[in-house]
Amino acid sequence: MLTQRWRLLVTAALLTPPLIWWGWGSSDRTRAPIESTSGERIDFFVVQAEVTRWQDNGAEAHRIQTQGMHHLMDQSLTRLDAPEVQVPAQSGTAPYRLRADTGRVPDSHQQVELAGNVLLHDNPHSGSAIKLSTERLTLFPSEDRAHTDQSVLIQRGQDTTEALGMDVYFKEQRIELLSDVKGLYHAP
Fold it and tell me: One of this protein's Pfam families, by short name (predicted)?
């Protein structure tokens, strides 16, 4: 009888430390946010993501495709890697597409901040397409508006316009150039 107790005691002594480590040690690692190299705390990330936002009436508001999205807890925003934003045609407006090197979406989802080689293409029903390029652009999807204080290059066919700062009103199909406007236009 003493040998069976002895075996049971030795088995319990050998199994207790791994079970304690496995039970208590693993729960801390799975719940803790990831720290990036810049010290930002990431609580979730998605690789090759596509996010669709919908309007109250059920129509698609916009779609964001990105190589990666990282939610930063401390800053209450989601960082996007190489995002592409697509906004479908809505009540008389042409569809358009935006691309950038990086992007940020605050948790309020009121705006999409794009940076690095920002490129905006419209896809008009008729006429030639417009291509806008800048280094930073803030898109306000619920207002159908975009804004930048950076320098802007607008190309339509062979015609080009440069400016410092711009507001784009998509529903009205109107662009307001804020200052230092220069243009080169070719007569037909």
Answer: LptC
**Do residues 48 and 109 share a domain?**
yes
Cα separations (Å) of 148 from 99, 121, 137, 176?
15, 16, 5, 11
Q: Name the residue range of residue 120's domain.
A: 37-184
pLDDT higher than 60, residue 43 = yes
- Between the alpha carbon of residue 91 and those of residues 61, 112, 172, the distances in Å are 12, 22, 11
Strands 77-81 and 102-106 turn out to be antiparallel
Is 64:82 a contact under the CB 8 Å cutoff? Answer: no
Domain count, the chain: 2
Cα separation, 160 vs 171, whole angstroms: 23
Q: What is the pTM of this model?
A: 0.73
pLDDT tens per residue, range 19-39:
666 665 554 444 555 555 566
H-helix or E-strand spanning residue 119? strand 112-122
